[in-house]
């Protein structure tokens, strides 16, 4: 599904299904997993380990572009 399709679905239904779209990935290289630790001063989930992730912008033509 492209970013614009997700956005159109959200807007056309008349019901806000989500505030934003976030995409994450699992990167495995030589049997290692990359995790990031959030800073202690973060408002949400301080000191929590998470997968690398990013927001999806409306200008991204596809989710794969946001992931890259």
Task: Describe the fold and architecture.
By secondary structure, the chain is α+β, with helices and mostly antiparallel strands. It has one domain (3-67). Helices cover 22% and strands 15% of the residues. The chain contains two helices and four strands; from the N terminus they run αββββα. The strands form two sheets. Strands 1-4 form a two-stranded antiparallel ribbon. The protein is flat, with a radius of gyration of 15 Å.
Strand order of the largest sheet: 1-4
Low-confidence stretches: none
Distance between the termini: 16 Å
Percentage of β-strand residues: 5-15%
DSSP helix count? 2
Structural class: alpha+beta
H and E string? HEEEEH
Please give the largest β-sheet. 2 strands, antiparallel
Cα-atom Rg, whole angstroms?
Answer: 15 Å
Globally, the shape reads: flat
Key words describing this protein structure:
single chain, 68 residues, two-stranded antiparallel sheet, 2 helices, flat
Short overview:
With 68 residues, the protein is of the alpha+beta class. It has 2 helices and 4 strands. It has one domain.
Give the secondary structure arrangement, pairings included.
Blueprint: H1 3-12, E1 22-24, E2 36-37, E3 49-50, E4 53-55, H2 63-67
Antiparallel strand pairs: 1-4, 2-3
